[in-house]
Amino acid sequence: MDKKKRKIGIIVFACIAVCLMIGTIIVKSPGHHDSIGELMRDAVLHETNKVSLFGLMDVNPGLISAFTVTGIFLVLALIVRIFVIPRFKLIPGKLQLLLETAVGFFDNLAKSNSPHRNKFLGAYIFTAGAYIFVGTILELFGIQAITTQGTPISLPAPLADINGAVMMGCLSYLVILSGGIAENKLRGVGKTLKEFSLPISMSFRLFGALLSGALVTELVYHYIALSYGLPIIVGVLFTLLHALIQAYVLTMLTALFYGEVSEPAHKKK
Asked: What pLDDT, on a 0 to 100 scale, did the predictor assign at position 238?
């Protein structure tokens, strides 16, 4: 029975692949109003496809994505605090185990890199990591918004906008600075200011990694020979990999530098 099922599965997969290839050859390209260069330029600078913010001003769609992710987190935090946490048991269920595993991972990451001051650090890197991950996979859902020109657009990841990436990098740098001040006062400020390029590197690492996935997917969509089925695989893989990798990289760097600047200064004998 297992061999028959495998044969049937292979035959079905082969039929689907053949149909996609035939469709690629027969179906004409729908055409693109913009060149690939213009599409990439707008993905970086957001000069054309802007969205109205409650009729007050025209903003980048990344800002709408940031508000959406923030609203999702606020609602989920209220639901978990009111309905889930009071029902925690000694023997955890699936949801409780998932939450405890996520919190424990970032808590251990903070303790291993900053053994002296890690309570606030654990809370911050958990929040930052969750925001990066959820904000990145948001683009998989294809939430639509209407631009000021009346055309629909899928909301991008918040950190695919250079402004969001810079703010995340600067916020992480300020958290590192606060750890140095809390433990070593002016000496901690000096330690932190030595790494003056840290917020720039964090910001552009986030921005470049998340934007590269969007540009690769756009390139695949742009050419008819690759525009059937393959963009789905490429988009999902790039998005999930960037979500996991960038969330881990930023939280690890923040915890590492926070631990360095918050390490107590040893007095000389």
From this structure: 77
